[in-house]
Task: inverse folding
């Protein structure tokens, strides 16, 4: 544009573009064609001149448009029309824009790092925008709002200017500039606090725009910087001396990779050096850290035969310094080593680039950008270094994550997070000190319980094996690595010893108990005299009863709904589950390691104190004090020896694994071999208990776990006491942890590496499968009434599961009711099985529902497996309309406005009322084949749930019936019907088999309801619920609520205990 600079119109800069374009057109004498159309009656010469100006103006305007905008207005060749279209496009609603611009001016405030020139320019720009929108802003108003927006360092000036109302905007700018100059004087002393700013300033001959390398603020040098000297108590002459001495030391340093000489005094606490040679981030003061994890290692200095000590690592949280380059930012630096011997804090350039940060050079500084190209901070060159200045976010020093006596914490983890009381009792066995205020977050999260049951710790026997308590827990999802779904715990009443076994099927209980009896009666030369269990079918059956009678063992069974009678087994289950849950949570291992965690918890429980016992269980069992120095932390990193026969000559002799527990029937540890994805048992091992082995597995994250669904709290389940029988395939027992062994002294016997076959069957990336089913405790009985959310855990997925469940009689009764309903509606006829004809399978779907009075109902519905049917071959149409939510909202609004009565109904077995046009043959219902006969199938005469066309058939059926009753279908919504006689009106909408009726006349309402009941079996809902919404009619209107749905979402995502706030509906 011949040196005329007009910005490109992008859509967000219209006002600036408009001002500059008008000026450019005026300069070119082309502005007249944008303000008026072509005048009439022009001479030929004038018309030609107007046409030329119009063409030039259109060209100038289009050349200043962005590519997107140019395409939008490409077809317009009249300058005025083009200008008006652009204006109408970008100005939008003038009144709304005017209000926004006025509010922006009224809310004008200066930013903390904004210069006076920039602030006044911004204020004038807003005023200009207001003028362009037709909102007049007087000079006095501009000054008023500008002065009112001053704050921070300009607060005093603001108070003075408020008393001087005759100042112009230019005079205000001049005053702010003078005040700003006084702030930046190099000889001024500035004290900053969180709540107030106090300035002391005087003019200096040396003032300039030099940037201080300490605080990055202009117009003073480092020796005069307040930040540099705010923590020093020496005089100013002493500070200069220290500064000179330190500078001399810097000059004597011959370009080290990083400055890390020990025993040298720090120059500035808040300086960080951007170092290209540092292998990691390092900080020298604990004040920077949010939390420090202890880990001692050596760091060797480049070019020197010396080293410094790293005492831990953690996360640093700091704030960048506010400068004219931008506002201060809160930053987080991960994996920072704590090195007290450092002279400066070091920021590793290599680590930054590895994390995706971008480094750019700009004159005398280096710019650091994050992954989104956002400027984070700048490093300035000073004395051959790149220096940054951060401020720590914490006012006090960070303490190590372990207590002062760190071996207490490590033993606490080794002993499955044993409580503090029993930890003190362990002083006779291990070397730990007293720690009175020790807190463990993992314990707080994983062991929280409700009030305990009455005391169950009184001995009821006089010697070991006299009384054995037994209980079964499961099924547990996911399966363990060996395929186990259950675990059984046996408790010796006299010693308190726990014995756990892992089962793939409940039928293995008999074999396991018989093996236990034979083994331990032989080892102890004692005899089992009593067995106490609940009434589960795994314990109460003919095979076990016969065996106990022949073995002269008295079988004590608990009273139904009184699980406390077998309290020791229940307590054992709770302790093992809580400790296993804690181990999995802390180690972050996949959930399929639950059997390993329970096995580990069992062995540790046998060597830790028990309530009411003077000695630990193992000491009572074997008659001597055991040695516990072999105990290690579950899930920690273990480096094990690889035998020569299993490696090549140049292979390293060690390999990394994960500590899972202690070997069975041999002296060694159970280690998960990460490389080969299998569990081995080995004795030659080195442990690093400060590292989690899960970090080497890949994708495992605690946040995705549903630990509670894996191990449900015993105390919570005791509320309901239900046992569900689930049929499973007959598969072998858990090979890795069939039982726990109490004799594990490691002092004498060497153990060769032993691969446990069939133990690791799933690759690591498949370990953390989602939990599909909430486990149910097997030792309980379900009370007659309980919440439906808990009942859902016991719903069988198939006919076989229902048959093997404790509620089989209820499910059988529900299925017979469903068959009676099908026979009542004559859904099928029994015919011979046709040859070469596709047969549709059938399936039972079970559910538990609550009636209006809170009573639990067992529901069983027979459905057809219609997903195998092919459209246009097995059926033609499947679309079935439902009422639109907008229509339902309108009906609610009309009911509120016109004071209509609102009633809700549901049609029982709705689909069974409609005929089926296609020929469909279905296999007999599972479990009831004998009622049909051999070689017979069901030929469907009615629509049944599961067929694609059933929904449409039902819709056509109820539509035709409603039209017979005098209702008319609305054209706007196929599922809304109306009946009116002028004064009275009835509206009906339906969503599949749910009906809602709105009416202002009782007689008309009753007539329609009776007509519907004459054809269909309907049930009126007393709870006023429709489509999951609770609808309540009041005197002043109708309220809608989805509280149950919201609460179910909160429970699903573990937010039911969160703090609630009121949220208005806009």
Result:
């Amino acid at each position: 544009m011949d040196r005329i600079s007009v910005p490109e119109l992008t859509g967000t800069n219209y006002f600036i573009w408009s001002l500059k374009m008008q000026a450019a057109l005026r300069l070119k004498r082309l502005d007249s064609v944008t303000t008026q159309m072509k005048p009439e009656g022009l001479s030929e010469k004038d018309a030609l001149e107007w046409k030329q100006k119009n063409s030039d103006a259109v060209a100038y305007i289009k050349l200043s448009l962005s590519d997107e905008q140019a395409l939008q207005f490409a077809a317009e060749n009249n300058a005025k029309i083009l200008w008006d279209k652009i204006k109408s496009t970008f100005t939008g609603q003038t009144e709304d824009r005017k209000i926004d611009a006025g509010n922006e001016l009224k809310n004008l405030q200066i930013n903390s790092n904004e210069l006076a020139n920039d602030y006044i320019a911004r204020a004038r720009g807003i005023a200009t925008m207001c003028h362009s929108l037709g909102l007049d802003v007087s000079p006095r108003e501009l000054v008023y709002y500008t002065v009112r927006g001053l704050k921070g360092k300009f607060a005093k000036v603001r108070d003075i200017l408020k008393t001087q109302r005759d100042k112009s905007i230019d005079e205000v700018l001049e005053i702010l500039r003078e005040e700003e100059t006084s702030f930046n004087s190099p000889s001024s002393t500035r004290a900053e606090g969180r709540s107030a700013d106090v300035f002391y300033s005087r003019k200096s001959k040396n003032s300039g725009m030099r940037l201080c390398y300490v605080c990055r603020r202009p117009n003073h040098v480092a020796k005069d910087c307040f930040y540099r000297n705010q923590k020093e108590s020496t005089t100013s002459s002493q500070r200069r001396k220290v500064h000179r001495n330190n500078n001399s030391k810097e000059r004597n340093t011959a370009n080290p990779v990083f400055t890390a000489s020990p025993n040298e005094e720090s120059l500035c606490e808040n300086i960080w050096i951007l170092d290209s040679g540092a292998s990691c981030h390092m900080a020298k003061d604990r004040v920077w850290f949010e939390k420090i994890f202890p880990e001692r290692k050596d760091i060797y200095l480049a070019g020197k035969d010396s080293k410094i000590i790293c005492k831990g690592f953690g996360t640093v949280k700091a704030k960048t310094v506010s400068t004219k380059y931008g506002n201060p930012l809160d930053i987080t630096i991960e994996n920072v080593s704590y090195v007290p011997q450092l002279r400066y804090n070091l920021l590793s350039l290599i680590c930054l680039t590895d994390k995706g940060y971008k480094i750019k050079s700009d004159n005398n500084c280096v710019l650091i950008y994050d992954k989104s190209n956002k400027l984070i901070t700048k490093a300035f060159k000073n004395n051959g270094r790149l220096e940054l200045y951060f401020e720590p976010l914490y006012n006090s020093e960070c303490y190590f994550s372990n207590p002062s006596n760190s071996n207490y914490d490590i033993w606490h983890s080794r002993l499955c997070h044993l409580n503090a009381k029993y930890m003190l009792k362990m002083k006779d066995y291990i070397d730990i000190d007293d720690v009175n205020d020790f807190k463990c977050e993992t314990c707080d999260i994983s062991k929280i319980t409700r009030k305990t049951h009455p005391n169950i710790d009184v001995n009821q026997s006089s010697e070991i094996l006299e009384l054995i308590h037994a209980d079964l827990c499961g099924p547990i999802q996911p399966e363990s690595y060996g395929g186990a779904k259950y675990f059984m715990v046996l408790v010796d009443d006299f010693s308190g010893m726990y014995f756990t076994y892992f089962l793939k099927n409940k039928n293995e209980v008999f074999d396991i108990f018989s093996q236990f009896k034979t083994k331990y009666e032989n080892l102890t030369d004692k005899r089992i005299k009593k067995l106490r269990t609940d009434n589960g079918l795994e314990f109460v059956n003919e095979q076990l009863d016969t065996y106990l009678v022949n073995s002269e063992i008295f079988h004590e069974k608990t009273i139904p709904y009184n699980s406390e009678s077998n309290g020791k087994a229940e307590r054992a289950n709770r302790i093992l589950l809580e400790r296993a849950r804690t181990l999995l949570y802390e180690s972050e291992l996949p959930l399929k390691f639950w059997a390993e965690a329970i096995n580990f918890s069992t062995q540790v429980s046998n060597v830790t104190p028990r309530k009411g016992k003077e000695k630990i269980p193992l000491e009572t069992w074997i008659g001597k004090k055991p040695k516990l120095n072999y105990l290690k932390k579950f899930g920690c990193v273990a480096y094990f020896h690889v035998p020569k026969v299993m490696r090549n000559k140049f292979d390293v002799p060690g390999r990394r694994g994960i500590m899972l527990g202690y070997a069975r029937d041999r002296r060694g540890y159970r280690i998960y071999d990460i490389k080969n994805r299998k569990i081995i048992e080995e004795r030659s091992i080195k442990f690093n208990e400060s590292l989690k082995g899960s970090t080497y597995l890949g994708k495992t994250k605690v946040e995705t776990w549903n630990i509670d669904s894996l191990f449900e709290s015993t105390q919570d389940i005791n509320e309901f006491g239900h046992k569900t029988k689930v049929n499973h395939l007959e598969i072998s027992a858990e090979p890795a942890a069939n039982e726990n062994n109490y004799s594990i002294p490691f002092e004498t016997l060497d153990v060769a590496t032993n691969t446990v076959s069939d133990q690791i069957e799933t690759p690591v990336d498949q370990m953390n499968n989602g939990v599909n089913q909430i486990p149910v405790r097997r030792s309980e009985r379900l009370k007659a009434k309980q919440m439906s959310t808990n009942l859902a855990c016991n719903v069988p997925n198939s006919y076989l599961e229902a048959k093997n469940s404790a509620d089989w009689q209820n499910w059988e009764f529900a299925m017979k009711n469903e068959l009676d309903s099908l026979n009542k509606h004559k859904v099928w006829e029994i015919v011979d099985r046709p040859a070469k004809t596709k047969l549709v399978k059938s399936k039972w779907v079970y559910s538990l529902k609550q009636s209006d009075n809170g009573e639990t109902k067992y529901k069983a519905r027979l459905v057809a497996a219609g997903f195998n049917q092919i459209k246009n071959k097995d059926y033609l149409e499947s679309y079935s309309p439902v009422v639109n939510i907008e229509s339902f909202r309108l009906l609610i609004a009309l009911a509120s406005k016109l004071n209509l009565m609102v009633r809700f109904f549901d049609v029982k077995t709705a689909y069974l009322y409609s005929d089926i046009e296609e020929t469909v043959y279905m296999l007999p219902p599972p479990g009831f084949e004998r009622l049909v006969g051999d070689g017979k199938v069901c030929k469907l005469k009615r629509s049944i749930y599961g067929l694609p066309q059933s929904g449409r058939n039902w819709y056509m059926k109820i539509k035709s019936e409603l039209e017979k009753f005098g209702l008319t279908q609305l054209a706007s919504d196929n599922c809304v019907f109306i009946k009116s006689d002028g004064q009275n009106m009835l509206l009906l909408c339906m969503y599949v088999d749910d009906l809602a009726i709105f009416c202002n006349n009782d007689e008309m309402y009753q007539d329609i309801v009776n007509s519907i009941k004459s054809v269909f079996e309907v049930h009126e809902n007393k709870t006023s619920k429709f489509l999951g919404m609770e609808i309540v009619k009041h005197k002043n209107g109708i309220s809608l609520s989805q509280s149950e749905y919201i609460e179910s979402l909160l429970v699903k995502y573990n937010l039911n205990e969160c703090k609630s706030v009121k949220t208005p509906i806009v």
